[in-house]
Design goal:
It contains four helices and no strands. The protein is mostly helical and 110 residues long.
Length: 110
């Protein structure tokens, strides 16, 4: 019975690590895809160079953990990237809404 508990704990820890790595990979890919827009937003003055630098640092911090065995640390770095990318996400969403509504009247959007 004790042995099965030990294996269950090991299995749970392995699962948490795999899930954290998969989530990190997905978040990194999604963020990387938006980086050209981040550069555009900096050029347009919608995002500061400091915000862009924080985003780059958060990306680097998460990428550095690709082979980490520490699921909790990976999750913390995912959260840090989430915080660092919120402005970018908001600007991307605003831009998408602007493009979707471009040329439509208020009556057409209701």
């Amino acid at each position: 019975v004790m042995e099965s508990f030990e294996h269950a704990e090991e299995d749970l820890a392995t699962r948490r690590l795999v899930e954290a790595r998969v989530e990190a990979d997905q978040v990194l890919k999604a963020t990387d895809k938006q980086l050209p827009l981040a550069d555009q937003f900096v050029t347009e003055g919608l995002m500061s160079p400091e915000e862009r630098a924080r985003l780059d640092q958060a990306l680097e911090n998460l990428e550095a953990l690709a082979d980490s065995e520490d699921a909790a640390l990976i999750r913390r770095r995912i959260e840090e990237l989430d915080v660092a990318s919120r402005k970018l996400a908001a600007l991307v969403m605003d831009r998408a809404v602007q493009h979707a509504l471009q040329g439509k009247s208020l009556a057409e959007t209701s």
